[in-house]
Predict the 3D structure of the following.
Amino acid sequence: VAAAACGGAEAVRVPTRGRASDLGALLEEARRPHTKLVFLANPNNPTGTLLDRGELRSFLSELPAEVLCVLDEAYSEYAGEEPEGPALLAEGTPRLAVLRTFSKVYGLAALRIGYALASPDVADALDRVRPVFNVNQPAQEAALASLHEQEAIALRVRHAQGAREFLFEALADAGLPPEPPHANFVYADVPGGDGEGLARRLLEEEGVIIRALTGFGAPGAIRVTAGTDEENEIFAAALRSVLASA
Ligand SMILES: Cc1ncc(COP(=O)(O)O)c(C=O)c1O
């Protein structure tokens, strides 16, 4: 939304259907005159849902010819079934750009490096402005070096997948309906609908920071990011303790 404002564009937010991206509603908005770009995160943040492959393909095939779809696959490595963005591009899907980042599983967020996969046309447009906004050389070197560490990355992914299952169970046991996670965090609804209140109590009474989701338009929900095993245990105990004294 901020990027759209910088470029003088109007950002139109399309509500989710339940916790998942609403491709039907997005398509309807995309068909409105003057739409230039649709932005879709897969897996989605903060709900952690993954798009159905068939539904995404049919969405892309129905997108108006002048609309570019940007698929943000920042959490792709954590998904059990890797999102198909790169494969869709390799098949020649038109009007598609795929974003990936080194900020998540690669742990290089402070270096501000990621990349876009796109058709030659889109890459050419990006290249024209790239010199001004390009990522710096040390970040590029670090990213390239980290690509050779796939064993370590696989270990991190396995750990996060186990950790998110632990958090999913902890939230479900505590009566906060969680969404089956496909990224390195778990989304859950808070009974009574006060996500901010629960987050505040966890911080003030237990010293545990989670994310309340008012800023994402979900005031009744929280997002808990997978930490170390010890941190996840501390969160589960803190949640039990806060709810017991509610
Ligand atoms: C869906 C999504 N895309 C991108 C990012 C950030 O990526 P980067 O650090 O490369 O800007 C985040 C995380 O903050 C995210 O949740």
About this structure: Strands lie at 37-41, 68-72, 96-101, 114-118, 185-189, 211-213, 218-225. The chain is about 45% helix and 15% strand. The first helix runs from residue 2 to 6.
